[in-house]
Amino acid sequence: MKEVKIKGATIPALGLGTFQLEDIKAFEITQAAIAEGYRHIDTAQIYRNEEGVGRAIEAADVARKEIFLTTKVWRESLSKKDFLPSVEQSLKKLKTDYVDLLLIHWPNANVPVAEYMEELMKAQEKGYTRYIGVSNHPTKLLNEVLATGANIITNQVEYHPLINQDKLYTYLQQHNLTLTAYSPIAQGKVIGNPVLKSIADKYGKNEVQVSLRWLMQQDNVLAIPRTSNLNHLKSNIGVFDFELTQEEVSQIDQLKKDNIRVINPSFAPNWD
């Protein structure tokens, strides 16, 4: 398993996302993922499955310190009044004293960046989290985040072969930050893509594995594919036994011209 080292953190490059998994399914899949060798698990307050994820980690034959656990504070809990109580509730549900990474899930135009970042730094000072970061923050907001002096390590955003994230990726590289890719297979839209399929056939892989491999070969990129399928769980982690050529990477890079965004709620910020 590839690891990414950033600002003192060592993070398994490929993790399990749990978006849209109900509590019981999240428990089953997290438990199976840990048994398969996953050591990076991502959840969020709004997923309403922190309890399932926490029970799976508690029941695992793997020490808590071996798991890199992320959760995210929902946009309606970003105010000074609600922030820390919401994190304390998350820790209780997750059955742990700390998470490894705590993120701002989405910005909220009604709460200033400086306010929620101050609370995020407080959570870190209290030992509720080892590392901090943000999610769904375009470069304009990242400038405000970094102006607070917060020592963030990542921005978790939609990233897959069919979207153009060049501007954001370049910004993150320049500021020594990782990009954590959610929806790394564009919620299945990579399946059937002729370029990805042609490359996949060469290696005896599938389009999903080629997409994940493309991400794994980029500097400071992490990916958290979500699945509820045990077979997919196994195949998603099977991307470390082949390597794309530079020509193949270039072919995949061309797919971003479609610039397909699959996650774009009404409250999303103005994207780069």
CATH homologous superfamily caption: NADP-dependent oxidoreductase domain
Strand order of the largest sheet: 3-4-5-6-7-8-9-10
| Mean pLDDT reading | 97
What percentage of the residues does DSSP assign to strands (E)?
15-25%
Dominant shape:
globular
Radius of gyration: 18 Å
Query: Total strand count, please?
Result: 10
DSSP helical segment count: 10
| Percent range of helical residues | 25-40%
The H-and-E topology, N to C, reads as: EEEHEHEHEHEHEHEHHEHH
Alpha-beta content class: alpha/beta
CATH level-two architecture: Alpha-Beta Barrel
Quick one: biggest sheet? 8 strands, parallel
- Looking at the structure, the CATH topology is TIM Barrel
Stretches where pLDDT is under 50 for at least 5 consecutive residues are none
Number of domains: 1
What distance separates the N and C termini?
32 Å
Mind sketching the topology for me?
Blueprint: E1 3-6, E2 9-12, E3 16-17, H1 23-36, E4 40-42, H2 50-59, E5 68-73, H3 83-94, E6 99-104, H4 113-125, E7 129-135, H5 139-147, E8 152-158, H6 166-174, E9 178-182, H7 194-203, H8 207-216, E10 221-223, H9 230-237, H10 246-253
Parallel strand pairs: 3-4, 4-5, 5-6, 6-7, 7-8, 8-9, 9-10
Antiparallel strand pairs: 1-2
InterPro entries: AKR, Aldo/ket_reductase_CS, NAD(P)_OxRdtase_dom_sf, NADP_OxRdtase_dom
Domain NADP-dependent oxidoreductase: 14-256
Keywords: NADP, Oxidoreductase
